[in-house]
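Researcher: I'd like a structural prediction for the single chain below. Treat it as a standalone chain; there are no partners to consider.
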Amino acid sequence: MYQRRLYKFLLNKLKDKRILEIYKKFENDLVKNQDFIVAVSGGPDSLALSFLAKVFAIKNFINVKYFIVNHKLRKESTSEAKYVQKILKNYLINLEILTWNGAKPKKNIQSVARNKRYELLINETKKFNIKNILLGHHLDDLFENFFIRILRGSGLKGLISLDKKIKKDGINLIRPLINVDKKDLIYISKNIFGLYIDDPSNKDDKYKRVKIRNFLTQLSLEGLDRDKFFLTIKNLKTANENIQFYLKKNLGENVTFLQRGQKVILKESFLFQSDEVLFRSFVELIQIIGKKYHPVRGKKIDKIIQLINLKSSFKVTLGGCIIKKVNGTIILSKE
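Model: Treating it as a single chain, here is the predicted structure.
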Protein backbone atom coordinates (compact mmCIF):
# COMPACT_ATOMS: atom_id res chain seq x y z
CA MET A 1 0.00 0.00 0.00
CA TYR A 2 2.79 2.42 1.00
CA GLN A 3 4.72 1.50 -2.13
CA ARG A 4 1.73 2.27 -4.35
CA ARG A 5 1.19 5.66 -2.69
CA LEU A 6 4.86 6.55 -3.02
CA TYR A 7 5.03 5.53 -6.67
CA LYS A 8 1.97 7.67 -7.35
CA PHE A 9 3.62 10.59 -5.53
CA LEU A 10 6.79 10.27 -7.63
CA LEU A 11 4.94 9.89 -10.94
CA ASN A 12 2.73 12.88 -10.11
CA LYS A 13 5.88 15.01 -9.96
CA LEU A 14 6.00 14.71 -13.76
CA LYS A 15 2.97 16.99 -13.87
CA ASP A 16 5.41 19.81 -13.19
CA LYS A 17 6.27 21.00 -16.73
CA ARG A 18 9.87 21.81 -15.87
CA ILE A 19 10.47 18.37 -14.33
CA LEU A 20 8.66 16.61 -17.19
CA GLU A 21 10.83 18.35 -19.78
CA ILE A 22 14.00 17.19 -17.97
CA TYR A 23 12.62 13.66 -17.59
CA LYS A 24 11.94 13.41 -21.32
CA LYS A 25 15.55 14.36 -22.09
CA PHE A 26 16.66 11.77 -19.53
CA GLU A 27 14.65 8.83 -20.83
CA ASN A 28 15.61 9.48 -24.45
CA ASP A 29 19.19 8.44 -23.63
CA LEU A 30 18.29 5.12 -22.00
CA VAL A 31 17.38 1.68 -23.32
CA LYS A 32 14.08 0.62 -21.77
CA ASN A 33 14.85 -3.05 -21.16
CA GLN A 34 18.37 -2.71 -19.68
CA ASP A 35 19.16 -2.63 -15.96
CA PHE A 36 21.62 -0.04 -14.64
CA ILE A 37 23.50 1.25 -11.63
CA VAL A 38 23.12 4.86 -10.45
CA ALA A 39 26.19 6.65 -9.08
CA VAL A 40 25.05 8.87 -6.19
CA SER A 41 27.05 11.54 -4.38
CA GLY A 42 24.43 13.47 -2.42
CA GLY A 43 24.74 16.63 -4.50
CA PRO A 44 21.76 18.09 -6.40
CA ASP A 45 22.85 16.48 -9.67
CA SER A 46 22.98 12.92 -8.32
CA LEU A 47 19.83 13.29 -6.19
CA ALA A 48 17.95 14.52 -9.25
CA LEU A 49 19.43 11.57 -11.15
CA SER A 50 18.19 9.21 -8.40
CA PHE A 51 14.65 10.55 -8.74
CA LEU A 52 14.67 10.37 -12.55
CA ALA A 53 16.09 6.84 -12.48
CA LYS A 54 13.46 5.74 -9.93
CA VAL A 55 10.63 7.08 -12.09
CA PHE A 56 12.14 5.41 -15.17
CA ALA A 57 12.38 2.10 -13.28
CA ILE A 58 8.75 2.36 -12.12
CA LYS A 59 7.51 3.09 -15.63
CA ASN A 60 9.60 0.38 -17.33
CA PHE A 61 9.73 -2.37 -14.65
CA ILE A 62 13.53 -2.67 -14.61
CA ASN A 63 16.09 -3.37 -11.91
CA VAL A 64 18.08 -0.34 -10.72
CA LYS A 65 20.79 -0.35 -8.06
CA TYR A 66 22.05 2.77 -6.29
CA PHE A 67 25.55 3.23 -4.87
CA ILE A 68 27.38 6.05 -3.12
CA VAL A 69 31.17 5.97 -2.73
CA ASN A 70 32.58 7.06 0.61
CA HIS A 71 36.11 8.18 -0.29
CA LYS A 72 36.96 8.89 3.36
CA LEU A 73 38.82 12.03 2.32
CA ARG A 74 36.90 14.13 4.86
CA LYS A 75 35.83 13.41 8.44
CA GLU A 76 32.21 14.07 7.57
CA SER A 77 32.07 11.75 4.53
CA THR A 78 30.84 8.65 6.40
CA SER A 79 28.03 10.46 8.22
CA GLU A 80 27.05 12.27 4.99
CA ALA A 81 26.84 8.98 3.05
CA LYS A 82 24.63 7.48 5.77
CA TYR A 83 22.46 10.61 5.77
CA VAL A 84 21.91 10.39 2.00
CA GLN A 85 21.18 6.68 2.41
CA LYS A 86 18.52 7.50 5.03
CA ILE A 87 16.91 10.22 2.90
CA LEU A 88 16.64 8.01 -0.19
CA LYS A 89 15.24 5.12 1.84
CA ASN A 90 12.12 7.26 2.41
CA TYR A 91 11.53 7.00 -1.34
CA LEU A 92 12.16 3.23 -1.49
CA ILE A 93 15.57 3.84 -3.04
CA ASN A 94 17.95 1.32 -1.51
CA LEU A 95 21.30 3.11 -1.52
CA GLU A 96 24.39 1.01 -0.75
CA ILE A 97 27.63 2.57 0.50
CA LEU A 98 30.94 1.56 -1.10
CA THR A 99 33.97 2.53 0.98
CA TRP A 100 37.43 3.37 -0.31
CA ASN A 101 39.76 1.94 2.32
CA GLY A 102 43.52 2.27 2.38
CA ALA A 103 46.07 5.05 1.90
CA LYS A 104 44.90 8.28 0.30
CA PRO A 105 46.86 10.34 -2.25
CA LYS A 106 48.71 13.54 -1.35
CA LYS A 107 48.41 15.03 -4.87
CA ASN A 108 45.99 14.78 -7.81
CA ILE A 109 43.42 13.96 -5.12
CA GLN A 110 40.27 14.56 -7.17
CA SER A 111 41.58 12.66 -10.18
CA VAL A 112 42.69 9.64 -8.14
CA ALA A 113 39.42 9.66 -6.18
CA ARG A 114 37.42 9.74 -9.41
CA ASN A 115 39.30 6.73 -10.80
CA LYS A 116 38.78 4.83 -7.54
CA ARG A 117 35.08 5.65 -7.66
CA TYR A 118 34.81 4.19 -11.16
CA GLU A 119 36.73 1.11 -10.08
CA LEU A 120 34.39 0.43 -7.14
CA LEU A 121 31.27 1.01 -9.25
CA ILE A 122 32.49 -1.18 -12.11
CA ASN A 123 33.21 -3.98 -9.62
CA GLU A 124 29.54 -3.83 -8.62
CA THR A 125 28.34 -4.00 -12.24
CA LYS A 126 30.35 -7.18 -12.74
CA LYS A 127 29.02 -8.65 -9.50
CA PHE A 128 25.42 -8.15 -10.63
CA ASN A 129 26.03 -8.67 -14.37
CA ILE A 130 24.87 -5.12 -15.18
CA LYS A 131 26.38 -3.31 -18.18
CA ASN A 132 25.37 0.32 -17.52
CA ILE A 133 26.30 2.99 -14.96
CA LEU A 134 24.43 6.31 -14.90
CA LEU A 135 26.49 9.35 -13.93
CA GLY A 136 25.15 12.74 -12.87
CA HIS A 137 27.40 14.95 -15.03
CA HIS A 138 25.50 17.94 -16.39
CA LEU A 139 25.96 20.90 -18.72
CA ASP A 140 28.04 22.89 -16.23
CA ASP A 141 30.43 19.92 -15.94
CA LEU A 142 30.75 19.87 -19.74
CA PHE A 143 31.83 23.54 -19.76
CA GLU A 144 34.24 23.07 -16.84
CA ASN A 145 35.80 20.02 -18.48
CA PHE A 146 36.35 22.00 -21.70
CA PHE A 147 38.44 24.67 -19.94
CA ILE A 148 40.33 22.16 -17.79
CA ARG A 149 41.39 20.37 -20.98
CA ILE A 150 42.48 23.66 -22.55
CA LEU A 151 44.79 24.25 -19.58
CA ARG A 152 46.24 20.76 -20.09
CA GLY A 153 46.95 21.48 -23.76
CA SER A 154 44.52 18.79 -24.94
CA GLY A 155 43.73 18.24 -28.59
CA LEU A 156 40.27 18.19 -30.15
CA LYS A 157 39.39 14.74 -28.79
CA GLY A 158 40.33 15.78 -25.25
CA LEU A 159 38.37 19.03 -25.37
CA ILE A 160 35.09 17.23 -26.01
CA SER A 161 35.89 14.12 -23.96
CA LEU A 162 32.83 14.30 -21.68
CA ASP A 163 30.56 12.28 -23.96
CA LYS A 164 27.05 11.08 -23.28
CA LYS A 165 28.18 7.46 -23.46
CA ILE A 166 31.61 5.84 -23.26
CA LYS A 167 32.91 2.37 -22.47
CA LYS A 168 35.27 1.67 -19.56
CA ASP A 169 36.40 -1.89 -18.86
CA GLY A 170 33.50 -3.16 -20.98
CA ILE A 171 30.89 -1.16 -19.02
CA ASN A 172 28.78 1.68 -20.46
CA LEU A 173 29.21 4.96 -18.58
CA ILE A 174 26.11 6.97 -19.46
CA ARG A 175 25.58 10.69 -18.78
CA PRO A 176 21.88 11.28 -19.48
CA LEU A 177 21.97 14.77 -17.88
CA ILE A 178 24.89 16.15 -19.87
CA ASN A 179 22.61 18.60 -21.72
CA VAL A 180 20.78 19.72 -18.55
CA ASP A 181 21.63 22.88 -16.57
CA LYS A 182 22.69 22.46 -12.95
CA LYS A 183 20.03 24.95 -11.86
CA ASP A 184 17.36 22.58 -13.24
CA LEU A 185 18.81 19.69 -11.24
CA ILE A 186 18.82 21.84 -8.09
CA TYR A 187 15.14 22.57 -8.80
CA ILE A 188 14.34 18.83 -8.97
CA SER A 189 16.38 18.02 -5.87
CA LYS A 190 14.65 20.69 -3.77
CA ASN A 191 11.22 19.86 -5.20
CA ILE A 192 11.46 16.13 -4.47
CA PHE A 193 13.82 15.82 -1.49
CA GLY A 194 13.83 19.35 -0.09
CA LEU A 195 17.65 19.30 0.27
CA TYR A 196 21.03 18.13 -1.00
CA ILE A 197 24.57 17.71 0.38
CA ASP A 198 26.96 20.55 -0.36
CA ASP A 199 30.50 19.12 -0.46
CA PRO A 200 32.87 21.86 0.86
CA SER A 201 35.58 20.72 -1.57
CA ASN A 202 33.35 22.11 -4.34
CA LYS A 203 34.19 25.59 -3.02
CA ASP A 204 37.88 25.00 -2.23
CA ASP A 205 39.86 26.90 -4.85
CA LYS A 206 43.00 24.84 -4.29
CA TYR A 207 41.36 22.49 -6.83
CA LYS A 208 41.67 23.39 -10.51
CA ARG A 209 38.03 22.49 -11.21
CA VAL A 210 36.83 24.95 -8.57
CA LYS A 211 39.01 27.71 -10.04
CA ILE A 212 37.51 27.01 -13.47
CA ARG A 213 34.02 27.03 -11.96
CA ASN A 214 34.63 30.45 -10.41
CA PHE A 215 36.08 31.67 -13.71
CA LEU A 216 32.95 30.55 -15.59
CA THR A 217 30.76 32.31 -13.03
CA GLN A 218 32.71 35.49 -13.69
CA LEU A 219 32.34 35.01 -17.46
CA SER A 220 28.57 34.64 -17.00
CA LEU A 221 28.48 37.98 -15.20
CA GLU A 222 30.39 39.46 -18.16
CA GLY A 223 27.74 38.18 -20.58
CA LEU A 224 28.87 34.66 -21.57
CA ASP A 225 26.20 33.17 -23.85
CA ARG A 226 25.85 29.56 -22.65
CA ASP A 227 23.81 28.56 -25.71
CA LYS A 228 26.54 29.76 -28.08
CA PHE A 229 29.19 28.08 -25.95
CA PHE A 230 27.27 24.80 -26.14
CA LEU A 231 26.95 25.24 -29.91
CA THR A 232 30.74 25.63 -30.15
CA ILE A 233 31.28 22.36 -28.26
CA LYS A 234 28.65 20.67 -30.43
CA ASN A 235 30.45 21.83 -33.60
CA LEU A 236 33.76 20.52 -32.24
CA LYS A 237 32.08 17.17 -31.58
CA THR A 238 30.95 17.06 -35.22
CA ALA A 239 34.51 17.76 -36.38
CA ASN A 240 35.77 15.01 -34.07
CA GLU A 241 33.24 12.53 -35.50
CA ASN A 242 34.50 13.29 -39.01
CA ILE A 243 38.08 12.56 -37.93
CA GLN A 244 36.91 9.33 -36.28
CA PHE A 245 35.33 8.28 -39.58
CA TYR A 246 38.65 8.59 -41.41
CA LEU A 247 40.47 6.94 -38.50
CA LYS A 248 38.28 3.83 -38.78
CA LYS A 249 38.69 3.89 -42.57
CA ASN A 250 42.48 4.00 -42.22
CA LEU A 251 42.53 1.11 -39.73
CA GLY A 252 40.12 -0.92 -41.83
CA GLU A 253 41.84 -0.47 -45.20
CA ASN A 254 45.54 -0.01 -44.40
CA VAL A 255 46.27 -2.39 -41.52
CA THR A 256 46.82 -6.15 -41.74
CA PHE A 257 46.24 -8.01 -38.45
CA LEU A 258 48.22 -11.20 -37.83
CA GLN A 259 48.57 -13.73 -35.00
CA ARG A 260 45.04 -13.12 -33.69
CA GLY A 261 45.57 -9.41 -33.19
CA GLN A 262 48.99 -9.77 -31.53
CA LYS A 263 50.77 -8.24 -34.52
CA VAL A 264 49.98 -5.78 -37.34
CA ILE A 265 51.70 -4.71 -40.54
CA LEU A 266 51.01 -1.21 -41.86
CA LYS A 267 50.51 -0.65 -45.55
CA GLU A 268 52.37 2.30 -47.06
CA SER A 269 49.06 4.13 -47.55
CA PHE A 270 48.53 4.04 -43.75
CA LEU A 271 50.94 6.96 -43.52
CA PHE A 272 49.28 9.04 -46.28
CA GLN A 273 46.72 10.62 -43.96
CA SER A 274 46.19 14.00 -42.34
CA ASP A 275 48.33 14.60 -39.24
CA GLU A 276 45.43 14.12 -36.83
CA VAL A 277 44.15 10.92 -38.47
CA LEU A 278 47.67 9.46 -38.55
CA PHE A 279 48.28 10.43 -34.91
CA ARG A 280 45.02 8.86 -33.71
CA SER A 281 45.59 5.75 -35.83
CA PHE A 282 48.85 5.08 -33.99
CA VAL A 283 47.24 5.76 -30.60
CA GLU A 284 44.44 3.29 -31.40
CA LEU A 285 46.75 0.57 -32.70
CA ILE A 286 49.10 0.79 -29.73
CA GLN A 287 46.12 0.45 -27.37
CA ILE A 288 44.80 -2.55 -29.30
CA ILE A 289 48.12 -4.39 -29.55
CA GLY A 290 49.48 -3.32 -26.16
CA LYS A 291 46.18 -4.18 -24.42
CA LYS A 292 46.28 -0.94 -22.42
CA TYR A 293 43.21 1.03 -21.28
CA HIS A 294 44.86 4.45 -21.16
CA PRO A 295 46.39 5.84 -24.38
CA VAL A 296 50.10 6.68 -24.47
CA ARG A 297 51.13 10.33 -24.27
CA GLY A 298 50.95 12.44 -27.40
CA LYS A 299 54.62 13.47 -27.37
CA LYS A 300 55.70 9.83 -27.54
CA ILE A 301 53.47 9.21 -30.56
CA ASP A 302 54.93 12.28 -32.27
CA LYS A 303 58.43 10.85 -31.75
CA ILE A 304 57.39 7.55 -33.37
CA ILE A 305 56.04 9.39 -36.41
CA GLN A 306 59.29 11.39 -36.62
CA LEU A 307 61.31 8.15 -36.51
CA ILE A 308 59.25 6.71 -39.35
CA ASN A 309 59.88 9.79 -41.49
CA LEU A 310 63.61 10.09 -40.69
CA LYS A 311 64.93 6.56 -40.18
CA SER A 312 65.17 3.73 -42.69
CA SER A 313 65.04 1.21 -39.84
CA PHE A 314 64.51 1.29 -36.06
CA LYS A 315 63.08 -0.68 -33.15
CA VAL A 316 61.43 0.85 -30.05
CA THR A 317 58.95 -0.16 -27.35
CA LEU A 318 55.90 1.89 -26.37
CA GLY A 319 52.65 1.14 -24.54
CA GLY A 320 53.30 -2.59 -24.35
CA CYS A 321 54.19 -2.75 -28.06
CA ILE A 322 57.33 -3.35 -30.09
CA ILE A 323 57.36 -0.93 -33.02
CA LYS A 324 59.91 -1.46 -35.76
CA LYS A 325 60.67 -0.44 -39.31
CA VAL A 326 62.29 -3.06 -41.52
CA ASN A 327 62.97 -2.46 -45.23
CA GLY A 328 60.44 0.36 -45.22
CA THR A 329 57.70 -1.76 -43.57
CA ILE A 330 56.21 -0.74 -40.21
CA ILE A 331 55.37 -3.63 -37.84
CA LEU A 332 53.69 -3.45 -34.42
CA SER A 333 53.65 -6.49 -32.15
CA LYS A 334 52.87 -7.29 -28.51
CA GLU A 335 55.89 -6.72 -26.28
